[in-house]
Design goal:
The protein is mainly α. The chain has ten helices and five strands; from the N terminus they run H-E-H-H-E-E-H-H-H-H-H-H-E-E-H. The chain folds into two domains: 135 residues, no CATH class; 78 residues, no CATH class. Helix 4 runs antiparallel to helix 5 and helix 5 packs antiparallel against helix 8.
Length: 241
């Protein structure tokens, strides 16, 4: 007898649905480590049924629950940060992190972050081995998750890839040296014909200046011209004040 085709693993819940589900678990059990059966009941299921396991699996993929003792789980710190956020900004930051925890969603954000649901569905069927119904559901959950987390795929950078001020300061030195030597990527980097990028951090406050120069061949003369433009901008600003 032929068996039904199963799609690869993906969160069966959108991030919004997952957050509401973990809220039920938090309201019932708080930080207590509970069995899967108890968690299923807290989520509104009568038993640890197939649908209950699917829901728990989705919470796990988003990082909203964490493994405790064998056969037990608890509400994760990441979920608590969302549920008990003291500001909209903090809650949104937590949602952004959770949105890209599922492996499939992180991959789709990189390859199809700005694509339509239909284009994503087609990709999942043709390239990822999904059957049509599973691809349709996965594409829908992915788009709903991006919308909730307010992720703009065109400019999104995961938090774990963002530079700290200390990292930026260290990189600036290497970038300046590389620009003079006509290369990118630090010592041993490949020669670059026309890209110079530099971040200028400030030790206090939230200001960060980014300078990027592109062209066929960057020379010190081009950087000197950039410096003059910055000096002119500063002069005009002071005049207006």
């Amino acid at each position: 007898m032929a068996t039904a085709q199963r799609s690869p693993n993906y969160p069966a819940l959108s991030l919004g649905q997952a957050v509401e589900a973990v809220r039920k678990l938090w309201n019932r059990e708080k930080r207590t480590a509970v069995s899967n059966e108890t968690a299923a009941t807290a989520l509104g299921f009568q038993s640890l049924s197939g649908p209950a396991r699917v829901a728990i699996g989705a919470l796990r993929q988003y990082g909203l629950i964490a493994k405790a003792d064998t056969g037990h789980l608890r509400v994760s710190d990441a979920a608590i940060a969302i549920l008990l956020a003291d500001s909209d900004e903090a809650r949104l930051a937590g949602l952004k992190k959770a949105a890209v925890q599922p492996e499939l969603f992180a991959e789709l954000l990189h390859t199809h972050g700005e694509a339509s649901e239909n284009a994503i569905r087609s990709h999942l069927v043709l390239k990822k081995g999904f059957h049509d119904e599973g691809a349709r559901k996965a594409a829908k959950k992915f788009k709903e998750t991006l919308a909730l987390a307010q992720i703009d795929a065109s400019g999104y950078t995961p938090d774990d890839q963002q530079e700290t001020p200390e990292d930026m300061a260290g990189n600036d030195i290497g970038q300046i040296q590389d620009a003079v030597l006509g290369r990118t990527g630090g010592a041993g980097g490949k020669p670059s014909d026309g890209v110079f990028s530099m971040n200028v951090p400030f030790s206090k406050g939230t200001i960060s200046v980014q300078v990027r120069v592109t062209g066929d061949a960057i020379s010190p003369a081009h950087l000197a011209r950039v410096r003059k433009y910055l000096e002119l901008a500063e002069s005009e600003w002071n005049a207006e004040e």
